[in-house]
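ok posting inputs for the alpha-D-glucopyranose job
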Amino acid sequence: MKLFRPLILFVAGLLVLHTAVAQKRTPVRPGAVRGVEYAIDSILAGLTLQEKIGQLVQYSGGWSTGPTGEQIINQEQRSLIRSGGTGSLLNVTGAAATRELQRIAVEESRARIPLIFGLDVIHGFKTTFPIPLAEAASWDPAAVELSARISATEAASAGIHWTFAPMVDIARDPRWGRIAEGSGEDTYLGSVMAAARVRGCQGTRLDDPMSLVACVKHYAAYGAAEGGRDYNTVDMSEQTLRDVYLPPFKAALDAGAGTFMASFNEINGVASSGSRFLMTKVLREEWKFDGFVVSDWGSIGELIPHGFAADPGQAAERAINAGVDMDMEARAYRDSLASLVKQKRVSVATIDESVRRVLRIKFRLGLFSDPYRGTSVERENRMLRHPSHIAAARTIARSSIVLLKNENSLLPLSLKAGAIAVIGPLAQNKRDPVGTWPGPTDTNNVVTVLEGIQEAAAGSLIMYARGCGIDDADTTGFATAVNVARKADVVVMVMGESNEMSGEACCRSFIGLPGNQLDLVKAVQATGTPIVLVLMNGRPLAISWEAANLPAIVESWHLGHETGHAIADVLFGTYAPTGRLPVTFPRVTGQVPLYYNHKNTGRPFNDTSHYTSRYLDIPSTPLYPFGYGLTYTTFGYSDLVIDAATLHPADSLRVRVTVRNTGTRDGDEVVQVYVRDDVGTLTRPVRELKAFKRVHLAAGASATVALAIPVSDLAYTGADMKRRVEPGTFTVFVGSNAAADLAAHCEVVAK
Ligand code: GLC
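and the output
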């Protein structure tokens, strides 16, 4: 068989090539392409059980690097690959390292099956883009797709085939650190962004050497962890799971995502990484997914502490029989699958089906045609941090910035000579702006806020003082900061979180400014010099005092390499801010969870009647609502019209509204349409985002903006777990955020 294997692979590759050529455009998610399936049949027939198990085992490179940063390949990894002990590695990067390991796999192993190299390409590779939560604030799926595309091309040039992205977890609790990695609290916006990221990663052809296969994570409902504590228990109705948390996964799948990642958490007593409901019933039987599922790091082994498996053998048994195909770093499949097959607790057919799914994606990536996908050190060096990538990073960083407050139009700042004091622990900081998961990047290239301001306002006197740390009680820098503030015409304070205060296992019980930062803000505010507060953070912050006492607040998240340029562009008006919040900002931590599409309850909260759902000590409304964001002009809405007041299930809800730029500067508005199902067999949220559109209007201009929503998008999951649009009245709200009160009504009739 050894002699014929290369021949089989060669023929298989030709079959795939022929099929691909025959189909003018290889669908990103082709149905079962016959040539590939036949080729996989042949490969499976020739594999030993151990070699099959090897295809279901993923190891981390965990490599040491040499003096020039090159990855050093150790003998253990070489022999593991040579013996067919693994079919995938993560955390190995670089054309040289990946080519060498691939060469061992396809030339020195018996089965000669190509490796698939995975990496977390979450918001950039060598060019770091804004964190996903920031990019979601752009409300610009095309920009998000471009960001994902550039990140994919840089990573693919470095030998990566597979990214563990997009992270599509809906997050309603900002204490949860991984809210930074997703697209916020809303199912519709999250679904739009999930699909955009998959398109960016995978392009129009998975076998394009610049494409990566996406991995939709963390499946599922990982963002609903109790208390906002990472990895914690998730307990919710199946209706909520299906209507709030699953749609972004389905949107990613519909966009062609080739792989999924099982999550760490349990849902309703079933650990996701052993959930047959999630991995087989929903994903494969209902959604017809034909790619493969990888566990999260060690999550199969964690079925034991979950109390969902007694030992590694049972953990492996429950995971593989649930439909988790590949084991990332738990070594449970490596250690137990062979004996489970002998004990008939796992069938060979189950193993074969998982191997088939893995090989199918390897074929779709073109790895059987060219295991190296044309990588070379030369191309890698040419692609990484290409000037066009850096320019794109600046563009999307600018559009991710949200202007939260601008009293008396303090912003944009004049570029005329004047004295600007730049203060704060994040002002001259090259590490934290890259955010929670930047990839193997070089932070020396980060443009700091101070550098961006110095470059933009070259004619001004720019003074700098760090003032305080990010998260300590040291006040020794206060005096210098106060001193430069006294001498300035305006102060730009750059405050917020380090990049290690959000992301995995980085949850906070208090989401105000960390350390003694607020004390510094108050000390500088006491000088009387007006302050522009620039926030750098990976989650909503509870900034009630700041919002009440400072004239201008700019939410800049963690923006990546082009931080300083993007923020300066907005501060000086080169770019009028266009961002809108993808997540609600609470007044205080104690309000959390607080999200816009909540249920009305029998005593909806209001601040005038005591016996309603509210707190005694704070207003029950958010500090800033979902969808909120200002710019350097203002907009007015009028003449909201619904084309047909009576709708049938097959119709679309067609909305028209007049938007006017009522200010003195041109600007962008994101017109948002929310719908409420007034009465349901099950209670319905007070409103849900169903469409949005960005419009650019010159000062004083107006336009009629039209949006259409398929009536089918108004469906929800009933007690019978079936989705339906229930006949009845609906209220449509249109405006600039989730508190919009311009409303109209329509009715859906049964037939
Ligand atoms: C981590 C994360 C997951 C990531 C994986 C590989 O624990 O939960 O998002 O893709 O391990 O790094």
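notes: Confidence is low (pLDDT under 50) at residues 16-31. The two ends are 63 Å apart (CA to CA).
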